[in-house]
Design a protein that fits this description.
heterodimer, B: about 180 residues, mainly alpha, globular
Chain lengths: ~675, ~180
């Protein structure tokens, strides 16, 4: 490039005020999840054949005869230890094959056989690297597994406020299931705010009575010198602050990496001097966590495809860390499904927060976790795998093309978490994807779910043994589910292509689910929340008959008559977005809520000029109308991702924007911790 | 991140370590997304393109012959993803014949002329890619040639003409 060209290029570059924010779906973590764990399935036939080979070896050692016919679902599971199989008398024995005493050996033999085939296929299948992949073997579909790009979303049935005697009225985290706690990046206990700051550390901030903010201390994360450390969320449990994290450590030459996730527990009874209490960690990528009845349930995925050729067999087995030392999970706690390709494990650790001296219990199931849904008794782990499909082209080569979320299957594994140790219950596999934990729901012994398939949507009802008892197929063909909400005997499902139908589905007879009514609107709702008797608020985006138009929208649906649901009011803001993560929705009362928003300034040909107004709105449902009661607005180029309140003060937050406070009644700005500007 | 670290990440990613790949991706994520956004003019499509490119790159990284070409190799995959979307994706809306004339215009309207991004949108996507890769991502003509499958000399002369033409159009708009 000559000087003239350089000068011209510089001139052109400076003429553009660029302000491009990388979407969350393209964050490093989400892309890592997307490619991990990579899964390459062979055909069902191949899988069965392979297992039979392993099974023959196993049978030489077994003392318990296994019967492989199913008892309501099509899966067999072997547990690599006879004692373990006997110990679980409650479980249907026919689903397990005890594999004898050499349990790790048994498991390793299974994995290594698969791993050899996997490595061979990785080397064999593809050539031509320019703009296409060419498969040599067209007999088998190559199945590609990815985690959902969306961060695990969580749920919220209650999201209520607290006003018990003496306790301050405060915003509580919007939970998917009542009494099943979830973590978040911004939490409060009525006196203090705990949040992740822009350096990735944890700020402990006193919410003063006058609305000002006083930072009491910062807990600095122990970040590795080489690698990365990310806090997934925080819990406040009694005097403890529980920090969930993921960590990837590389050696200096990057030859070996350690991946782990875990929790650090701090006693924050003195917020000026938080005291580290303990660390619990697993050799896994963080997936999700909950606190139920004083038990912390930590869920992670450990991928092993990178270790198939390792000399160290222990890397093919799941493990926890004890004071930094990798300790294998006992073989009897590892559950291996013969239908599941051994490419990754889900690890489920149960730690006892009220009994600090009690050792945590960890179990592992072959598979991976892209989403979790948890009731007080049962943890449902959803593992979605996406498919590469091969297509014959005119010159008889096979060119797989990535076909998106429609071509996928989801394995649902149910784990009983009611006891001290997580116990495998059963599993099933469905064709299609489940958007998030709001699209799956346990009610009166049935598991209901809204499923998106390649070209249609379904409602599926399973009984407790995972037998399908009811289904509606063909809902909104060619559209994608954008949100769902199950409430008692009714499901509300929003789908979208150009306009947004909201379907009302009657589930009072689980065997005969039925669409009662629907309403079509421009735009779509990404999150639905009940706001009073027969009313639903839908948080999402606006649009026209031609599709979405860059506006943000809150809809108020009247679903009192299931046959004729109606949108009775809406608030639309141009060039804006509402935060649609369910954790961002904070109920102030039964009929009012705080919702974070960002207005992107003016647009020229789709590009923002970078003038951002951001904050939270207080919306009230009054006489069948949505009323914007107040707007807590600041300026920050980073936007706002959460909002909450303590007494009469509203707090808005974003990692890079910090925390800002406002008078709830007047909307007046009070204070901020960092880059929020009045 | 220095070149040495990147080389190690590539080595590790080639062994199938998704985390190393994630680190590697993060070095270029912003550039990749900007390129896709400017090329496709649609945030959803741009997200799809970058995701698909990342998935493809991870799957094919074992076949990367020259580690030092990783960046342009990754962009090449992304460019192919963008092309696929541009050429094969059915639009969600129909454009009437009258509206089609908008896409035939060589010179943007007065209201649009002052914006480089608007001017870029009037270019064929290959030429647009040359400008974006050069102006915003700082690629050399050789690298752009590698990404787009063109000779470096062709890129050089095309780029020179485009830079000069775009500057004139922008300055013209300012003077009006």
């Amino acid at each position: 490039m000559n000087n003239n060209d350089k000068e011209n290029a510089q001139f052109l570059k400076e003429s553009v005020k660029e302000n491009i924010t990388l979407p969350e779906s393209l964050s490093k973590e989400n892309i890592t999840k997307l490619v991990l764990p990579e899964k390459q399935k062979t055909s069902k036939k191949g899988k069965v054949r392979r297992f039979v080979a392993v099974g023959v070896a196993a049978c030489l050692m077994v003392t318990v005869t296994a019967v492989l016919y199913n008892s309501g679902f099509d899966f067999g599971v072997f547990r690599a230890n006879e004692e373990a199989a006997q110990a679980d008398e409650n479980k249907p024995a026919e689903n397990h094959i005890a594999a004898g005493e050499t349990s790790y050996d048994e498991l390793l033999a299974y994995i290594k056989e698969y791993g050899a085939e996997y490595v061979n296929n990785m080397n064999k299948y593809y050539y031509a690297t320019d703009d296409m992949l060419v498969m040599e073997d067209a007999e088998e579909n190559v199945v590609f597994s990815q985690n959902s790009a969306a961060a695990p979303m969580a749920p919220g049935a209650s999201g209520s406020t607290t006003s018990s005697a003496g306790a301050p009225l405060r915003g509580e985290l919007n939970l998917r299931e009542k009494d099943v706690l979830e973590n978040d990046i911004f939490i409060n206990d009525g006196a203090y705010i705990y949040c992740i700051n822009e350096e990735g550390n944890i700020a402990l901030i006193k919410a003063e009575d006058d609305g000002t903010l006083t930072q009491k201390s910062v807990i600095t994360a122990k970040k590795p010198e080489y690698g990365y450390y990310e806090i997934s969320g925080l819990y406040k449990y009694k005097d403890y602050l529980i920090v969930c994290y993921s960590e990837t450590v590389y050696n200096k030459d990057y030859s070996v990496s350690d991946i782990c996730c875990g929790v650090n527990i701090y006693d924050v009874s003195d917020t000026v001097k938080p005291v580290f209490v303990r660390n619990l960690a697993m050799d896994a990528y963080y997936s999700s966590s909950r606190i139920v009845d004083g038990k912390l349930i930590l869920i992670g995925t450990y991928g092993i495809t990178g270790h198939y050729e390792s000399d160290d067999d222990s890397l093919l087995l799941p493990a926890c860390y004890n004071e930094g030392e990798r300790q294998l999970i006992p073989a009897e706690n590892i559950i291996c499904d013969k239908e599941e390709a051994p490419e990754s494990y889900v690890l489920i650790m149960t730690a006892f927060l009220d009994e600090p001296d009690k050792a945590p219990e960890t179990v592992s199931v072959l598979g991976h976790s892209t989403e979790t849904y948890c009731t007080k008794e049962t943890l449902y782990i959803l593992g979605t795998s996406y498919t590469w499909r091969s297509m014959r082209s005119s010159d008889a080569v096979f060119m797989p093309s990535f076909v998106g979320s429609g071509n996928a299957d989801t394995v649902i594994t149910a784990i009983d978490i009611s006891g001290d140790k997580a116990v495998y219950k059963n599993k099933t596999e469905i064709d299609g994807t489940i958007l998030n934990s709001y699209s799956i729901d346990e009610y009166n012994g049935y598991l209901r779910m809204a499923v998106n398939k390649a070209d249609e949507n379904l409602i599926i009802v399973l009984d407790k043994d995972f037998n399908k008892v009811g289904e509606i197929s063909g809902i909104a063909k060619g559209e994608l589910i954008k949100s769902a909400r199950f409430m008692g005997d009714t499901a509300y499902v929003v789908t979208f292509v150009q306009t947004d139908p909201l379907f009302v589905i009657d589930l009072s007879d689980p065997g005969k689910p039925e669409i009662k009514g629907e309403v079509k609107l421009p735009g779509f709702s990404s999150y639905l929340h009940p706001v009073g008797d027969g009313l639903l608020a839908g948080i999402g985006v606006g649009g026209t008959e031609s599709g979405i138009d860059g506006s943000a929208k809150i809809s108020l649906f009247d679903v009192r008559d299931p046959y004729t649901p109606k949108e009775i009011d809406s608030i639309v803001i141009e060039n804006a977005s509402f935060e649609t993560n369910p954790k961002a929705y904070t109920s102030v009362s039964e009929s009012s809520f705080l919702i974070p928003y960002t207005i992107w300034g003016t647009y020229t040909n789709g590009y923002s000029d970078g003038r951002f107004s951001t904050g939270a709105m207080l919306i009230e449902v009054n006489n069948n109308e949505l009323v914007k009661k107040n707007d807590y607005c600041a300026r920050s180029p980073h936007g706002t991702s959460r909002a909450t309140f303590i007494d009469d003060t509203v707090y808005i937050y974003e990692i890079y924007s910090g925390v800002a406070s406002f008078d709830m009644e007047t909307g007046e700005y009070i204070a901020s911790t960092s880059s929020y500007d009045k | 991140m220095d070149g040495h670290n990147i080389q190690h990440l590539i080595k590790h990613a080639k062994k199938g370590n998704a985390y190393a790949f994630g680190e590697l991706y993060s070095v270029y994520a912003q550039d990749l997304y900007r390129f896709a956004l400017y090329t496709l003019k649609d945030t959803y499509d741009a997200e799809d393109a970058v995701q698909n490119a990342a998935v493809n790159a991870y799957r094919k990284i074992r076949d990367l012959k020259k580690d030092e070409s990783f960046r342009s190799w990754f962009f090449k995959i992304l460019y192919n993803e963008c092309r696929k979307l541009l050429t094969s994706k059915p639009r969600l809306y129909e454009v009437s014949q009258d509206d089609m004339s908008v896409y035939d215009k060589e010179v943007p309207s007065d209201s649009e002329r002052s914006d480089l991004l608007s001017l870029l949108d009037t270019l064929p996507h290959e030429k647009k890619a040359i400008v974006v890769l050069s102006v915003f991502d700082g690629y050399t003509s050789e690298e752009i040639g590698e990404i787009l499958g063109m000779k470096a000399g062709t890129v050089r002369s095309t780029l020179s003409r485009l830079l000069s033409k775009l500057r004139k159009q922008l300055e013209g708009a300012d003077n009006e």
